[in-house]
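Reopening: Dihydroorotase still failing for me.
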Amino acid sequence: MDVLLADGVVAAIGPDAGARAGEATVVEGEGLVLLPGLVDLHTHLREPGREDAETIRSGTRAAAAGGFTAVHAMANTTPTQDTAGVVEQVWRLGRDAGWADVHPVGAVSVGLAGEHLAELGAMASSAARVRVFSDDGKCVHDPVLMRRALEYVKAFDGVIAQHAQEPRLTDGAQMHEGVVSSEIGLAGWPAVAEEAIIARDVLLAEHVGSRLHVCHLSTAGSVEIIRWAKSRGIDVTAEVTPHHLVLTDELARGYDPVFKVNPPLRTAEDVEAVRAGLADGTIDIVATDHAPHTREDKDCEWAAAAFGMTGLETALAVVQETMVDTGRLTWADVARVLSAAPAAIGRVEGQGRPIAVGEPGNLVLVDPSARRTVEPAEQATASGNSPFRGRELPGRVVATFLRGRATVLNGVLQDDADGSRRAAGRGVGA
Ligand SMILES: NC(=O)N[C@@H](CC(=O)O)C(=O)O
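Support: Ran it again with your exact input. Result attached.
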């Protein structure tokens, strides 16, 4: 059937909606899948501070290219997003760039130092309306600080998104602790360093009756703990990254730092466990943890390299390959784990909505039968650290619409030059 977009919203749906299109741009949708615009709960945009790795503009162009209409920008910028002033700046830069909605994540602690609570209330009541708070990159390891943060955000329905990493168990760690780390001689990062924090935090969330979100869960044991916590009625949600759905610690054998990431790539058993957890709903969402880094920070020996990999432009493809093409998720499930559920966790308005008349025209049109080879030089992100470079992945984002306006059309980012991004959106997908 046809979907008519006009004045920023879905104006009509049905076999005849195209008849009302008038002068609208027509996008042929035969054989394609129309999804609500994707929402990322975990993106590193690097601005302010590391604009050499990514800017809000380049990162949100990458988001649009990947089918996203909203991203949550993590707080580990320079200066840290720990005040109302900084989060408002990030929010405004995102709005002015116009490629995807930018929702700044507020830091839990001042400067991510883990000592004093940041001004959570001021960030929540700022123009940026922050609801997600995280020290991501660092763990809120002090249980008292974590408890206070969980208690504080209840007042404005916020959520603490924890980067679960016990620092004392990961001092100097370079990769997953296991057979591969001992064979190749890199300091290991035990699964228990993640699992111990998750176990503590679900109990803390239960104790204070607050909402907890677990970032980039990566081990089979973590899935078990979340499953147990949910069975107890604890208000916890969890995310898995695309890379943890497919890549393993075996890749470290080549010492290529493009595979160095926090949390580290785990074993094939862990990959199977996170896929199973996503399929049965234990894991609520897929979030990219898009972590762009410059060549200087990545193209060096393993121990000196930064942790992190890009992901916005490959996330949907990896989810299709690992979950849809294997029969473990339907496309409706994809709409849930990459759009509706992350929007709900972040309390984002106007995103992650069902495709229905009157809803904002935030949509992505995907060709699931296409195949492409990932080439970082062709991506919109300013950084080249994709772990999928040279790899063939399924699916292609044909079009992305932000409030009815095409940010991507025929697979091409719609830059200012052609004027289409400024025009009021009107389009139809058949
Ligand atoms: N996920 C990553 O590997 N890197 C993140 C932060 C982090 O260390 O978690 C980054 O900001 O680069």
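The first strand starts at residue 2 and ends at 6. If you still see a failure, please send the error message rather than a screenshot.
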